[in-house]
TrEMBL record, chains A, B:
Residues 34-345 form the Enoyl reductase (ER) domain. The keyword Oxidoreductase applies. Homodimer. This is Enoyl reductase (ER) domain-containing protein. It comes from the Eukaryota. Pfam families: ADH_N_2, ADH_zinc_N. InterPro entries: ADH-like_C (IPR013149), ADH_N_2 (IPR041694), ER (IPR020843), GroES-like_sf (IPR011032), MDR_fam (IPR045010), NAD(P)-bd_dom_sf (IPR036291).
Length: 350, 350
């Protein structure tokens, strides 16, 4: 019975071992053999479902928040012993949902495993395959790209000629923010943690200037050097001492879009921010946001970014590790800045 | 020559002795005899000017910023050896400006002295005397009232039924914010530093609840108790640990109007704020503001507040000390919360 033999596959999973209160380490996750999985949606389930073969998985800093036993967030924690969840791109193997058929390529929330049964298929998006690499749907055309898009246009209220600073600027979100700001006619400076990334910012992404924050003994002075007239817009990805230095360098009526504070993810007692008084004297607006509040803008985002990409006006750099087993190290690397560009894990190419 | 004898008066001044880097103390200021002053605008000056007899002087926390040798603020520092400057209400003694005549009552920036020569009379506002006490033009109908008005309506975007928290709630600004929020249909809680002030908030200003922050070992728990569903709007007057506690108690899409951080005025190294990550998870907007950016709303403010006051819908409490010599102690008292209500100094009643 050839068909039945093919209809079963081995399913490996990356599971969370237990909740943590510090920066994630590889040993907080474990690759386990999930046994055999039938390659079809089980009968008698609660409703229509989709079985996907995972191709690409996304490593994003927000996922660290789901490793804490903290139920008061906008997203619930992971379950210890169960697979890590995150955005992914996969191929539909079987579907009992009328919107999806075997062979469709989809993106959405999935598990860190070879095959995932998606019981809420309405959250999946069907991907029209094109000249755009599939994995880009986790970055340029996925959540990070959309975060950059709504953060820059909806939160920063940018004006042509304004001075924009982006931290973690070569990351999944930062590289897009910087390029959008350039397209908008702004002067853009980025910070990153290695000279290689600084080069990338200037040579590949077209930032006007960039610096390695690890080589700056005085961040306030570094920003003063790059922004003698001050900063109009700060796209905040890191928190901590950089935010304090920025607060001293903002211009009157400046805006700070608070997208992430990756430097603070690992610490139980986050660094204190001391210069908030600048919010008053400079009349600064500081606003946190989450891209999912702006889903109505997603189609427009896809149109705009696809057009810019095809016109060669936006490029994207990703850092791809190969094999599900590389997931934990790739994820952990985000918090020490090991990744160069958007971190993804290739589980399978087809 | 009766007329000439009357046209000279003794002028006392409160001068700043030198710049400071800590909370102000009485001895940082000095009452000096400024000698005799001719009671008319000197001839040959640079342009039209107004000589006023100061009646009431305002003590405001922002003035502490002018005691530092720091020129990068929205307002320049005081000059050591020269009188303290601040808002005041005075009576015009002589004027070479066509808009003002002897006998007019005016409010505006003046000096801490018996008589001030105002060389920029265009910044003065003429006061129509009425049933409203003259000193209220330094509070309810002056800069603090206007700060409360623009801060609440323009920065907080309040909606009926929302949960509002005001710190330093019995102060010059806080008491008005709380009453405006009640008029807007919000649920309002205030914090203050003595039981007497807490009583005032509940009994006089009609706050729904109030607490003495000095008697709360855990501010986060205190706010949780008063706002089991969280805070929609925080009107920030104090900074420091209260802000950190508020950040943990905000609701999704909450707003923080940053008006002042009086707890931080005295310290060279301000307390660190550790919970800014909440800005992201709760999508909070935190915005600093200065009332002078909204002068176009001043006439509407005066109309609205005057009507509310006459209708008995807003009350105002001020703490008046008597005599120019009482100025330094009254000002210094702001930073330890000695004042009950808006602090003013009565230099002369007529």
């Amino acid at each position: 019975m050839e068909r039945e033999r093919q209809a079963v596959a081995r399913n490996r999973k990356v599971v969370l071992r237990g909740y943590i209160d510090r920066a994630p380490r590889e040993e907080d996750m474990e690759l386990v053999d999930g046994g055999a999985v039938e390659l079809r949606v089980p009968e008698g389930g609660g409703g229509p479902a989709v079985l996907v073969k995972n191709l690409y998985l996304s490593c994003d800093p927000y996922m660290r928040g789901r490793m804490r036993d903290f139920r008061n967030s906008y997203i619930p924690p992971f379950k210890p012993g169960s697979p890590i969840e995150g955005f992914g791109v996969g191929r539909v193997v079987d579907s009992t949902h009328p919107g999806f058929s075997a062979g469709d390529v989809v993106s959405g929330m999935t598990g860190w495993e070879d095959y995932s049964l998606i019981t809420k298929p309405e959250q999946l998006r069907k991907i029209q395959q094109s000249d755009i690499p599939l994995s880009y749907h986790l970055g340029l055309l996925g959540m990070p790209g959309f975060t950059a898009y709504v953060g820059f246009y909806e939160i920063c209220s940018p004006k042509k000629g304004e001075f924009v600073f982006v931290s973690a600027a070569s990351g999944a979100v930062g590289q897009i923010v910087g390029q959008l700001a350039k397209l908008h006619g702004c002067y853009v400076v980025g910070s990153a943690g290695t000279d290689q990334k600084v080069e990338l910012l200037k040579e590949k992404f077209g930032f006007d200037a960039a610096f390695n924050y690890k080589e700056e003994p005085d961040l306030t002075a570094a920003l003063k050097r790059h922004f003698p007239e001050g900063i109009d817009i700060y796209f905040e990805n890191v928190g901590g001492p950089m935010l304090d230095a920025v607060l001293l360098n903002m211009r009157v009526h400046g805006r700070i879009a608070v997208c992430g504070m990756v430097s603070q993810h690992g610490v139980t007692a986050p660094a204190g921010i001391h210069n908030l008084f600048s919010l008053i004297s400079k009349r600064i607006e500081m606003k946190g946001f989450i891209q999912s509040d702006y889903v109505h803008l997603f189609p427009q985002f896809v149109d705009d970014i696809t057009r810019h990409y095809r016109d060669g006006k936006i490029v994207y750099v990703e850092d791809m590790s190969v094999g599900l087993e590389s997931g934990p190290a790739s994820f952990v690397g985000l918090f020490s800045g090991k990744n160069v560009g958007k971190q993804v894990v290739c589980v399978s190419r087809d």
